[in-house]
Batch of 2 targets.
Target 1
Amino acid sequence: MLSMQNLSKIYRTETVETHALRDFSLEVAEGEFVAVTGPSGSGKSTFLNIAGLLEEASRGRYELDGRDVSQLDDRARSRLRNEKIGFIFQSFNLIPELDVFDNVDVPLRYRGFGAKERSERIARVLDVVGLGSRRKHLPAQLSGGQQQRVAIARALAGEPRFLLADEPTGNLDSQMAGSVMDLLAEINAKGTTIIMVTHEPALASRADRNIHVRDGQIVEDQAPLGLAAAAGG
Amino acid sequence: MLRYYLKLGVLSIRQNPVLSSLMTLAIAIGIGACMTIVTVHYVMSGDPIPQKSSQLHYVQLDSWDPNSPANEPNDPPDQVTYLDATALLAAGEARRQAVMYRSSWVIQPEGDDARPFEADARSTSRDFFAMFDVPFLYGGPWDRLADDNAEPVVVLGRELNEQLFGGENPVGRQLRMNGELWRVTGVIDDWMPVPKFYDVTTGAFNDVEALFLPFTTTIAREVYNSGNTNCWKPVPEGGWEAFVNSECVWMQFWVELEDRAARDAYMAFLDGYVESQKALGRFPRPLNNRLRNVNEHLAYQEVVDDSVNIMLVLAVLFLVVCLLNTVGLLLAKVTRRSGDIGLRRALGASRRAVFTQYIIEAGLIGLSGGVLGVLLTWCGLQGIRVLYRGLDFIDKLARMDWVMVGAAVALAIVSALAAAFYPTWRACAIQPASQLKTL
């Protein structure tokens, strides 16, 4: 499903060379829920950006759904991103001047769906996240938790096979964070592969698999204790 | 997607009203200043008779002083002598030919209270009307016999007909001028070639004359011209006869030549005519005739003044300055919205899609700048009218037509797109990941 082999990412300025990822290799199977943890500056976000085709690796091989993405041009990368990947950001990243319906509509527009199909998909995902009645609300008229639900709806509308979440509960209180995590678990249970970057061990423990990153390398790759015990026992 | 991009453009403009207004204003001021001058230039340099301008030719014969040219560096005089004009007319070598000069007349309207007034007339031959596609409201030109027999007939301008006959059909009615009765054969409809190409010696932007008369008739009545007369040697004593037989130039002569071959043939005819006159002791200078079509003639006469050309360059430079300001404002706007670009790219928009979205938004700003620019152009032209209100032709120059309105809006849109190109391209070239960090 997702295969990274010896990926490196180097940021260069005139005087400094920063290795954000070093020989980073990872395989993620379809339907997995993977949590990526690590200290700030460890390379988590760089990994997520490369996985989401938002930037390119300096070296190494990256295959998404069996396709080598390193040679793709911008148009093909954009299409792949639009069709196969959904993003959830820490600060929701909704477009403030668009209402809920139009925010969810954005990726569908780029997908080229007709008005009827877009409308049906939007209604469906808004029902999934429990915001069917808020379609005409602007983001500013919603709570943080609701905004993140809209962002999740937007990520799900195109029915991607991958959901990449960058600290999805970082801006939410514990109650709302719990509800968003429940929603992600529900989505994962329906077969969507999720990779979530988080700082919080409690949230990471809800994933099938924990990866710990430090200095641009994976230093730990294991199932959480509870899940490992369940698998072993 | 176009409607979607238009909707996003409108939303974005509403979201950033100050920046959007500044950009619109920068474009509008540039367009307003530029189009004000461009409009004046356009009217001044326009082709006054596009359907025939390549066929109509102005004749210049070098009958001038052997010791110095009529016009530097070596051009013949701007007009021809009566002797040559009548000889060329009689030869009838062109498809059509018209001799002409401007004269001034005193018109005595009917009625005890009506006061006599002066009016400009063009004395010409009947081909004038067909050559220059003059439209008629009533009747038509006088006939050939009237030319041949120097009959007192007249073609009125529409305005004079309104004044004298209340706008009714006056054909067959009579009009008293310089104490003599003249029969009306026709009334021309609105006709205002700009520039007044057929006689730029009396002002390229002056009004068309109020009436038209057979030149044979006015010559027979010894009516002098009210335009320019230039002589390279003193006019001999002897009054009218001496004047018309002198080497003074005071008449204009036009011919209609259907193609290049006809033009070459007529030029050969002119050269032959001058050679025959040399044998009679005239035309002391080397053979140096000119046959210019309408646009060549207007360019040669420098109808568009150099100062207008300089103003045009300055106006274009001003537009460029305004556009550079717009580029700066757009750079600021696009930079401020780099997060939006990154987000849209993350959600699947290609560089091309985002580029198109932002270019369309710039086009909308250009459109609003263009509409405002047209308004400012109109204000600018009104300003020119006020500034030069003493000049009777200024109304003709300082006016916009739909072509110029369209051109102003199109120029504004193209300018906005040009201004948006670099900032948008730059923003779209950045990796979405780094743009997302700005959110």
Target 2
Amino acid sequence: MVVCIKRVPDTGARVEMDGGRVREERLEWVLNPYDEFGVEEALLLKAEHGGKVTALTARASGGEETLRKALAMGADEAVYVKDALLDGIDGHGIARVLAKAVSRMRIDLVICGKQSTDSEAGYVGGALAALLDMPLVSAIKRLRITGGRFEADREVEGGVETVEASLPAVLTAQKGLNEPRYPSLPGIMRAKRQEIKYLDLASLGIGREELENPLKRVSLAYPSMERKGRMLAGDIGESAKELAEFIRHAV
Amino acid sequence: MIWVLAECDNNGPKAITLEALGAGRLLADPLNLKLCLILVGSNTSACAKNLMRKADRVYSLEDPLLFTYTNEAYNAALAAFLGRQEVRALITPGTSTGRDLGPLLSVSLGMPYSQNTVGLGVSEGAVHIRRRLYGGKLIETVTPATGKGGVIISIMPGAFEEAKDRGTDGEAARAEVVEGLLREEALRIRVKGFAREAAGMDLIEARVIVAGGRGVGSAEGFRLLEGLAALLGGTVGASRSAVDAGWMPHAAQVGQTGKTVAPRLYIACGISGAPQHLAGMTGARHIVAINKDPGAPIFKVADIGIVGDLHTLIPMLIEELKKTKATPIAR
């Protein structure tokens, strides 16, 4: 099993920009919450069916901490495609890099988070499935594997869809799939000593020109979220009347 | 041509389809390109009928194996069809289906994919896409690096005005599924069933959302919110703390790790307004905030804010609304 992970700014963090770029040096980084569900699910599957869990990430720098978190949770192995050429590369390129790395492994299952909380694109899992020519089941909330097949519940509008598909496959994890464990102290100590396996683009046979972002940034700006609202803090009966009036017009 | 992928349910086109057509117009008109709608399924005529006046051309891509959505069959059929068409942009709905299918189509068609799009425009002949990053903390504008190459644009529900009817019907066209392209035995994914969740859970399509947070106090407290939502023909949402407390299921969660919604009216009850939550709801047309704490950040993004206890206010509000009971706003 391979779990693709990445680091993201903590969702509570203030994201600031500087000269059209996000100021990354002041952000606090965490393992993408949806990827954490992915790691946990792989560990649960391992406990039930055996096998090996490999955590995989691809970025220019700063991936070690993310991988060590996965190792501390219980992953067996960490692979880091680390290359300066990956700086600023978006999901289109990252999916290609991950696909190359995964295609060199013998795997039954690739698990990704449903999306990351920074770009929120939800792109990499689906693109990986297409690039690896594996079935994709996205946003899963339940998984059961029997033999070479599996059954999963997907969250869709208004309900839950149950699908069945063959392995190997790519799954993306939705909140609710499981409750990620906290790494144990021995787990954290072990993860510190574990070796991370490094790969670079040359070793995967990928040239920089293949990774050019297909969408160019024109600008980056803060949204205007604030509204000039009216505040009603007086008699609650009067507030209810006025609010009812507002609602009638609003709908 | 500018393409729009339709999404329908048993009642006809979903609102997001009309919004996607509205978004498509923002590109088709300035670029002087035709706006083409594509419906996929086994019998799309019922849905097509309501949409003829909103597009220049309406294509139906039909096959018995497209009766139930699977990303595998839809991707194969759409990629084969659109691969032979001129595609400047394909607009897809930001629904669970659209978000499932978009990345697959991106690889199959060799086109970039842009998510969470909230604005579209044309500048010096180039398509400009405005999209949310970091749960709406930043807005990025991007343009295809290849200039006129196609791009897949997934739109945020509620971000675009619905398309208006044109004077005349668009042209109806059939899109043939290549003979033998879809074979049941070759499909690796099969849908086994669908279980509807408790009524009114479709937050994405809801016109009115009454959402509760920690201030609601308990699972029972949400019954009060349900009463208000029912009166307004809306549905109930929840903040992360209310979901983490076990008062509401995750399917009802609004925010960065839940759903992003843009209803006509959002009523935030007992929600303080953490950035995490604001990321999911500031796209609403009208925002009402009810909170005991006058310093709650939710008031900054509200059109009208009431400082007070929701348990006292909401029953009074329900009474007021019943006095001149407006017709529930069903979609």
